[in-house]
Design brief:
This protein is mainly alpha-helical. It is built from 6 helices and 3 strands, in the order αβααββααα. Helices cover about 70% and strands about 5% of the residues.
Length: about 130
């Protein structure tokens, strides 16, 4: 497995998830909001936003607001759903909330779709074959 590619995909997912949750919280999102939320420098966020624009996950308005494109929003929603489901599942198993959130953050990038869907189905009380 090429860890460099993996790492960069992980950070793309983290950024998209952060943009979506900030949009839900604040309505409009600027780079500075992302820098504060993720505790990254403005320079790193700026580089990441350029990368996300090139991948066509976001657009930037003239006054500096970041908007998710349709594909950016779709990807962000998938990551956020994984994060939420995995966090709540770990909490339901008795894991401390903060640890559950940190672990869910690591798991959401590495878990296979098959395993995630099985966990989701289990939580919803269904077998995967249904």
């Amino acid at each position: 497995m090429n860890h460099m590619k993996h790492r960069s995909n992980e950070s793309v997912e983290d950024y998209l998830e952060t943009i979506l949750s900030l949009q839900n919280k604040l309505g409009q999102v600027r780079s500075i909001d992302i820098a504060h939320e993720m505790d990254f420098s403005k320079a790193s966020v700026s580089v990441a936003m350029k990368n996300l624009r090139e991948k066509e996950y976001i657009t930037m308005s003239e006054n500096g607001y970041i908007l998710l494109t349709e594909s950016g929003r779709k990807q962000a929603e998938e990551v956020l759903e994984k994060h939420t489901i995995l966090t709540n599942w770990l909490i339901s198993l008795g894991v401390n909330k903060e640890i559950a959130q940190e672990d869910a953050c690591r798991m959401e990038h590495d878990i296979s779709t098959e395993s995630f869907l099985a966990i989701k189905a289990h939580i919803n009380g269904l077998s995967v074959s249904e």
